[in-house]
Each structure stands twice: as C-alpha cells, then as structure tokens.
Protein: Phosphodiest-domain-containing protein
Amino acid sequence: MAGLTKSPSEEREGLLSGVNTPSVSEPDTSKASPFRQQSTRLSLAGIGVLLGLILSVFYWLRVPPRLVNNLYLGGQTLRSNGTQKFKRTVLLVSIDGLRHTLQSKHYLDRGLTPHLLDVSKKGLRAKFMKPVFPTLTFPNHWTLMTGLYTESHGIVANNFWDAETDSEFHYNNISSCWEPHWWLGEPMWETAKKAGLITANLMWPGPAKTLSGASPTYFVPWANKVSLDTKLAQILDWIDLPLSERPQLILTYEPSLDQAGHAKGPYSREVNETLRYVDGFVRDLHDSLVARNLTEIVDVIFVSDHGMTDTSHPELVYIDDLLGENGWKAVKHEDGWPSMGLHFDPSANASHYLDVLLTAAEDNSEKFDVYTPQTMPERYHFAHSSRIAPVYVVPKTGYVLTTRAEGDVGLSKGNHGYDNNDPTMNAVFVAHGPFSSTAKIAHDKQSSSYRLRGPFNPNKGWHSTSDDTYVMDGFQNVEIYNLVMKLLGIPQAEAAQTNGTTGFWDIFF
Structure:
C-alpha cells in the first residue's frame, strides 16, 4: 500500500522497538546473479509448500475421524448406527412464524428455547433467512420446496385470482389449492423421487400431486390441531422402517406458533408458551435421534417461512377513502393480505384510479407504496407472472389496509406479509447433523478466520444468548432446495433449475 512500505531496517526497528540494536547495513542485491535470484525464489517457494503441508497435517489431526468420514457421506452411502444400515437422511422441519430478528425480544433470545439453541450450538444457525415477497405462508413454503421466487412458482399469495383461468386460489380450500395447475416448479420431493429416493411429506403446505403427476412416497395431508407428539411419532415410525422402505427425505410442518402470533401478537404470553412447546419437540426429536445413534447420519434442518410483527395497535389506511366510492366499486377482485392486489373491472378507468393511488402514496410515503408489475422493486422478484394483480398496494409495518365497512373487525394482533427487507419478517435456519459438523470444518478451513480462532472456538461476530453458536451470514430461502440436493447426493445435472445462487453451498462442503 502506497505510503506504508517500510525498508528492511525500518521493519527491524519496528519489531525490536525498545531494544538497542546496532544499525546493520543491508547487502546490495542489485548486482546479484540471475541464478542466485532464482535459487532464492525456489527456496522461499519450498519453505511455503513445506509450511502448508505441516499446517494441513496439524489441521486434520485436530479433526475427529467421524467428522472426516462425514465429508464423504453421500446420499447412497451406507452407514451403520450400530444395529442397522442407513442412507444419509434429511429431515426438514418448518416452524411457521418463527421469527429471527437482530432486534431485542427475538424469539430465540427469550430464554424459552434452550434445546433449539443447544441444537444450533452443536450444529449451526444463520443470522437470519430472508423470505420471498410477499412474506406469506404458502408462497414461502413453495419457495422452500422449489428454490424459486414467487413470480416463478406461481403461488403469489395465500389467496389470489388468476385472470387467465378466471379462477381463485384459496389456501384453506382443498378443492382449490390442491389443483396441480397452480403449483409451478419442481419440489424437492419430486426431484428426490426421480433420483430413486423414498420421500415423506407430513403436512407440508402444497399439493398432493404436481402437474407431472408425481407425489411423495408417503403423504399425510394437512389437519389442524395435530399435536407435535403425534407428528414426532410419525417421523420416528418412518425412520424405524426397514432400509428398503425408509424415506431419505422427510418434510414436516407445524403451524401453532404462527397461530399464536396472529391471535395474541408476537410479545404475548401465548407465543412464549408456544415457543416452549415447540422447544420440547426439538428436545424430544434430538433425544430420539441420539438414542438411535443417528446424529451423524440424519441431517435435521429447522426453518421457518417468515417472521411476525405486532399489529395490536396499527394505524388503519382506508383504501375506499383513497379511491372514492366509485373507485372502490370498480375493484373486481382483491388479492393478498396485508397487501392489496387490485383487479379493476375491464369497463373501469383503471389508469385513473392508479394515478389516484400513486398520488396518495406520495402524500403518505411513510404508510404505504403503490406498484404495478412494471414498477415493482426488482428485489421482490414479483412482477413476471400473469397471476400478479395489475395494481399492488403494499403497507409499511405499523399500518393496515382496510375499508370503512371492514374497519378493524377481525384484525389479528400479529401479522406478516410485509416487505421482506423488514427485519421482523426474517425467518430462521438451524441445522444439525453430518452437514453442520463438516460445514464448520470446511468453512473454517477456507476462511482466514480459522487462523485466528479455530473451528471450535466461540463465534464473536454476532450476538446470541448462546455465545459459542456457529453463526453463518444471512441468506435467501431460495437456497434451501440446492442444499437438500447436495445432502442427498443428487447431482446438479439431475436437479431442477432454481433461482438459487450457483455454488452457494460449495464453501461448506
């Protein structure tokens, strides 16, 4: 760096500051023979290689043999738990509404989830996982399954109208939401089944079959108020099956935390009680895998679809006041919540009403934004689908869109669906198993931080109640599909195309 270069004698004085050392003149190397210069370079290179070999040997001597074996545990590799042979297995668990913010009162930093924190301490966790927009349950669960943005997989809200088919998608109506034509992209269970793997789906939001006619090997449809004890029993029943019948990919979904957050708000006693309830499931699941000696065979990944923000005392924005009586009557279909996707009647002057809303947004920029597919923020990846309404009103957190007729009737005390850059919308990622143990090694081996702290020393880069939890940087949930493919040993050439980042997980393998 210019201005900071020191001569050899200056370096000596700096290193030996405080020591009286006689000045030593430097030999004149300007006339050294080419042969001598080349010999010097070769000697330095040899020393560097030797030092690298010594450090590598030292590094690998520190790594337990079981972790070295995990580096080579592929999807079809057989490994014994002491009594039976197992193939590498992935258990993906979604806890709906488990938010992961850097703010105070973050769900995992309330002292209510000691077992989930302990699992993340033994494994790894991310600072956050960023959901796709809109930050709703069905769009994000299908993103987790396919690795696609909302505009690519077609589930653009929990409820929406499709102008091309003149039909509506309702997330809570099986006759509607199980129709395969809604669900674009290839879910991970379909890819795994194509690769010859057995799969199991325990209530994960999505269809029973895709457009291609594919379905999971084992499928348990959605049912409300099913206890986590019952779900754990089903997971263990699958894990205890004979090798020829045992699934290698198990998907599980739990909605109770999201339901508590909506009903009572993210800071409520009910949410805290549900956090303890979910943490008990994490404890029982982990203990069951330990009892079966499967913690180095089964990768357990806990995720969520979105976070939750407090809407117990929001400011109401009345869309019918903004549009006027005739303008609101001209709205033929209304999509989404808390955003409003507006489809105007073909006979209405839609461009006029768009101008009215744009002007209102300029005058109330702290409250909401108004977009069309052409002006939608690129980071939303929410423009290139015919299912996206031609006008979208997106509220800021702290505000709720409504009408004079609806007011605050039925308004929940907690909500999501807001801008996916808002930290209260952040989701969680916690992993434990052969992936997490080897990811620490592989990441630290390639990172300059390894030389400073080693792979098993406390992470000082980010606050957590668990100080020695290994924390990776935040990332988008479109990356999860490719992670599962890697863990199952499915080559990239056999996986579906996604919106994930090519090579994103390579540093961890």
About this structure: The longest helix spans residues 34-62.
